[in-house]
Amino acid sequence: MKVLVAMSGGVDSSVAAARLVGDGHEVTGVHLALNRNPQTYRSGARGCCSLEDSNDALRVADTLGIPFHVWDLSERFAADVVADFVAEYAAGRTPNPCLRCNERIKFAAVLDRGLALGFDAVATGHYARLETTGGETRLYRAADAAKDQSYVLGVLTQAQLARSLFPLYGSVKADVRAEAAALGLRVAAKPDSHDICFIADGDTAGFLRRELGERPGQIVDTAGAVVGGHDGHHQFTVGQRKGLRLGTPAPDGRPRYVLGISPVTNTVTVGPHDALAVAHIEAIRPTWAVAEPRLGAWRGLVQVRAHGEPMAATIEADADRVRITLDEPAFGIAPGQAAVTYDGDLVVGAATIAAAA
Questions:
Q1: Among 48, 49, 98, 197, the one annotated catalytic
Q2: pLDDT in tens, 180-202
Q3: Where are the beta strands (DSSP E) in 236-335?
């Protein structure tokens, strides 16, 4: 099989490429240049798209003896991921840029170009399992629960899954690192990426301040009383506790959390942790990882964060909306996050949270 491997420069995609070479596939590596301003490239391994990462990927490709290319997708990344991220925060929502990157860059732009160039499939170092049965390609959680990345892949379609490969699906991270070391790959001990790749210093609030400017407003409690001020509602997310700088302490002395964000009035509402409890989620723009949309009511699991716990729920979906009723209340669920639904370990689909109560 002719396989294009998206090589980030990390240990996971490097071992994925090595395994495919070992299995006898015709492998080509590609690194994605996503940043339009090289001066913002950082040193170290805070993200996954730095100049340093590109050099690491090239060295791995040389070691494996495979062709290697760098594709400049910076303009599309800026429009589809970065601009979307900024717009979502401006609208008072909390997006997941890694999920958006998978949806619009790695498994849309890269896959489309790869197929046009004659490749049979695109492979990545994601931890997730694919299984093809009766013409349907199903996406499942990985064997290593601590590294499972099925959540950020939940937006993929059948057409994309059918042309995808995840060679690490059955591995645990420690074994992947050991395998890289045995192969002589210098990235064997490289730290995992953990930050938003286009925010070089890891300061999300600072990045949003630079992009959206300052817009002073009020922080109010649930009764509408002003308890503090802010420089812009885009500096906050539902469930946030730190950095509120409230001038008026709560009457009961307990910590307060962000309960809601109103872009129209430029106010942020805070209150006690108990007020964050959510039992019902409304999500829009559903996509389906399974061949047949799971419409109507059914029992399943829902996950609202990349490393969040799956929650038992009754799920009811139609063509435009997914309504989720949780068995137990959850806390800190923000509009803009993705709700990914599961049937056991099987990924069913994803939708964007519009409201929670």
A1: 197
A2: 999 999 999 998 876 688 887 78
A3: 257-262, 267-271, 277-288, 296-303, 311-317, 321-331
